[in-house]
Amino acid sequence: MTKIWHRPLCGVTTIMALIGMNAIAAASDIFSFSEMQLRATVAGMPSSAAYLKITNNGVSDDRLIGAKAVIAQRVEIHSMEMDNGVMRMRAVDGGLSIAAGDSVTLAPGGLHIMLMGLTTDLAPDTQHEITLVFEKAGDIKLTGT
User: Fold this and answer.
1) How many of the other CB atoms lie within 10 Å of CB of 112?
2) N or C: which end of the chain has fewer CB within 10 A?
């Protein structure tokens, strides 16, 4: 009896895997990304930042609600602004809205992905993976240097 159920379950499993892969591909096709740049660190430096341009090529708005990376204990979306001559950095509450057909640029001195509690030094020209988490599109993995 096990053999009778084995084949249909394998077929269902294969179909579910293909549907999942198509959903991931479709989500990552909605957005286009510039090359992600990671700020290199010196030995023992506890934090760094990642920068890139994100373009929403889809037909509906979405929101970048978070990010994650194995190279950091905490990853947050931050803004940087001048306040009475003092540079202030803060986590962005609620994420970054990216309208359909619009772009958001994360760059030094402004919006960026903050990597805190680094688990490794970020040497120049080394590649590291960061996963961006979108409200609708879900997780999209990118590699930056």
Assistant:
1) 24
2) N
CA 49, CA 63: separation in Å to the nearest integer?
20
Q: Are strands 86-91 and 62-68 parallel, antiparallel or unpaired?
A: unpaired
Question: What CA–CA distance (Å, rounded) separates 37 from 53?
Answer: 10
CA 124 from centroid of its chain's CA atoms: 20
CA dihedral 59, 29, 65, 113 (to 10 degrees): -130
Name the amino acid, one letter, at 137.
A
75, 113 in Cβ contact below 8 A? yes
Q: What is the pTM of this model?
A: 0.79
75-115: per-residue pLDDT in tens? 999 998 888 888 888 999 999 999 999 999 999 999 999 99
Contact 55, 63 (CB under 8 A): no
pLDDT digits (tens, 9 = 90+) for 29-71: 799 999 999 999 999 999 999 999 999 999 999 999 999 999 9
Distance, in Å, from the CA atom of 145 to the CA atom of 76, rounded to the nearest integer, reads: 18
